[in-house]
């Protein structure tokens, strides 16, 4: 068996074990908690196992881009690392409808340091919050709930294909006024690349090329922008 075939066999075994864990743990999870396993080697059809899919409205075979927005796991999934498992505990994401979710993710990397699987848990506490609000209202205590973020109110539209979804993400990210100065133009393009990265566009085949075309730069410029963003985060 070649080294590459051995690696693929290893990754497939890990995915099968994680899928069994999703089914077992998912059978006892409360209804507001989704557990989902992604095969990052096939991002266009990444969802291989999911429990309580109604939380984000996804199903088996859906894209890694579908269902959540502003997910830190997308950024982590782009990185090669000697760390075999990267944990991202308790961070905020949003469903397609703009509902805030509490999320946690584990990114698994193969022997070549590339990410191949992501195990994610997403908790929707909206029902609990509504129940607490109702109890407070019935008790006569007036409360002023915090206004939801404007971004969270904007629901993602349905898409017929992953290609449509990629176009929508790029369109939203490039809908910026770069200004007249060169520095302003670069800043706007960097912001657009950051938004595309946060939406996971660079996980998709052809994502870099499509982003470069939309921004009027070369694919190498996109890679330079990603390096600059990585160094800024560091």
Automatic annotation (TrEMBL):
YheO-like domain span: 15-131
Positions of the Transcriptional regulator DauR-like HTH domain: 184-227
Superkingdom assignment: Bacteria
A Pfam family hit: PAS_6
UniProt xrefs under InterPro entries: DauR-like (IPR039446), DauR-like_HTH (IPR039445), YheO (IPR013559)
Protein name (database record): Uncharacterized protein
Highest classification ranks of the organism: Bacteria, Pseudomonadati, Pseudomonadota, Gammaproteobacteria, Enterobacterales
């Amino acid at each position: 068996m070649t080294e590459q075939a051995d690696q693929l066999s290893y990754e497939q075994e890990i995915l099968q074990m994680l899928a069994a864990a999703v089914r077992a743990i998912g059978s006892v999870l409360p209804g507001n908690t989704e557990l989902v396993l992604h095969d990052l080697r096939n991002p266009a059809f990444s969802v291989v196992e999911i429990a309580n899919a109604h939380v984000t409205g996804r199903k088996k075979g859906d894209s890694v881009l579908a269902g959540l927005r502003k997910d830190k796991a997308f950024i982590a999934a782009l990185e090669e690392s000697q760390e075999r498992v990267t944990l991202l505990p308790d961070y905020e994401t949003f469903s397609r409808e703009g509902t805030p979710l509490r999320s946690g993710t584990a990114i698994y990397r193969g022997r070549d340091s590339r990410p191949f699987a992501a195990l994610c848990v997403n908790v929707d506490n909206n029902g609990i919050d509504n129940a607490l609000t109702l109890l407070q209202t019935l008790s006569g205590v007036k409360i002023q709930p915090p206004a939801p973020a404007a971004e969270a109110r904007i629901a993602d539209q349905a898409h017929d294909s992953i290609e449509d979804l990629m176009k929508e993400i790029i369109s939203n990210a490039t809908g910026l006024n770069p200004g007249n100065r060169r520095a302003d133009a670069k800043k706007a393009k960097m912001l657009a690349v950051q938004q595309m990265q946060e939406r996971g566009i660079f996980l998709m085949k052809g994502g870099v090329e499509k982003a470069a075309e939309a921004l009027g730069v070369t694919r190498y410029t996109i890679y330079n922008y990603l390096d600059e963003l990585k160094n800024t985060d560091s």
